[in-house]
Amino acid sequence: MKILAINSSYRGEKGYTAFLIDKVFTGVESAGADCEVITLSKLKINRCIACDRCQTEEHFLKCIYEDKDDVKEIFNKMTEADIIIYGTPVYIFNMSGLLKIFLDRFYSTSHVYDLKISKSGMFFHHVTEEIAGKPFVPLICCDNVENETPENIIRYFKTFSKFMDAPQVGLLLRQAGALVGHGSDREREKKFPEILDAYKAFEQAGAELATLGYIKKSTQRKANKKIVPYLPPVRFIKKYAIEYARNEMGRQV
Fold first, then answer.
1. 1-13 pLDDT tens trace
2. What counts of helices (H) and strands (E) characterise the chain?
């Protein structure tokens, strides 16, 4: 079993996304499986320019950038992996631009004029199963505590799964990152001890991916548990919450 994580945080190895991937991989390694992280911010990834050369006979399923950036190597590593983790922070209510630019390059791995019906009944086209159709887990993190904040990403990957015939074998979601110290502030964690249980669940999620090929629902609930309880849509309560957060983080939010 090999699990490949794609870290699309602009902060690369220094961000909360990287910290959470490390937690998952602690569990993966404890279960005896192999794991590897690809940090997109360290690589050259050209954007798709919709030239359609990859659909021509002379250049079929080969991007014009194939030997000019690092995407081909990433695709090779995805082909070798059994499960993919798509790791991203929330940026303006969506995945990072790094991840979206990379996913756009899947176009060159698909024969878009070979139409078909996906297993979920969606009208679509051929995809390269070894890349786009791999079992996957979205790993999403953000500082906000509102339920709505990560919804676009969650919905995107549900749609991705249906069209690509790619089984989604779990969802890892970690909110309130700044409030709990992004995994690097021990004093902040002492004020929110529940976060340590969530991190243990991330490790358990990795062990389950390595041994079962999916993350149990019970483990997902523990990993994704909200550290800050749901805030009802009452403005004065949210104003109080903002003042509390300001005091906790020692700066304006």
1. 999 999 999 999 9
2. 9, 7
